[in-house]
Specification:
With about 260 residues, the chain is an all-alpha fold. It has 2 domains: about 35 residues; about 200 residues, no CATH class. The protein is built from 11 helices and no strands.
Amino acid sequence: MNLSGIVWAFCCLVLVSDLNAQFDKFTKKLPSKGKMEKILGKSSSGSNSMTNELAANGLKEALSQGTDIASSNLGQVDGFLANAAVKILFPPEARKIESTLRSVGMGSVCDQVITSVNRAAEAAVIEAKPIFVEAIKQMTITDAINILTGNKDAATQYLQRTSGQALMAKFEPIIQSNLQKTNATKYWTDAVNTYNAVPFVQKLNPNLSQYVTQKASDGIFLMVAAEEAKIRENPSQRIGSILQDVFGWADKNRK
């Protein structure tokens, strides 16, 4: 081999050695296999891991299921009246009216008021479904991840923030109309007038429509929270593979 060939071979060896050294430095900076699989969206088993889109879709499915059940259950006959957790009683400031009337044998008037206001709430809550559907559609991926890894009632709190006012606005005219249809307004007026006719009592006349509207709203969110708790705490309530995957992931990643 002549001198130029020896020089050329030496240069090649130096170049290869330098490339190997640079490659070693590069590979040492790479994430571990587990981290790389997470970045690429794959688990160590090779199956697809949770994605933001899948998490959002799973949560939306769960919320749709929970709000539909809550609305349907409360919207049937005795949905409010027979459920002690949401049954609407006399307003706190009107409890004196009820106790006084019952003490003088006017309990039937009180019972008529209670039955009729609950019937009005039952008629209104079915209208919650489209409002909840719209709130769920507007949910962002960030909202979904925060809800999934948040408190046990994080989804219910989200719905209260995003649809609470719309529900109240939708419920009130329906409840007012149904208070009249069920004679609640008449029974309430009779009860208040009878109470106010009792000597030496402080005259009262609470706004029945506003009170029932608020209690109907409180009731449906209470039931939505109960449905949310079932799905979060009881794997058997997670119907379908999406809910099982999403809430299984949430169980491991809760804040």
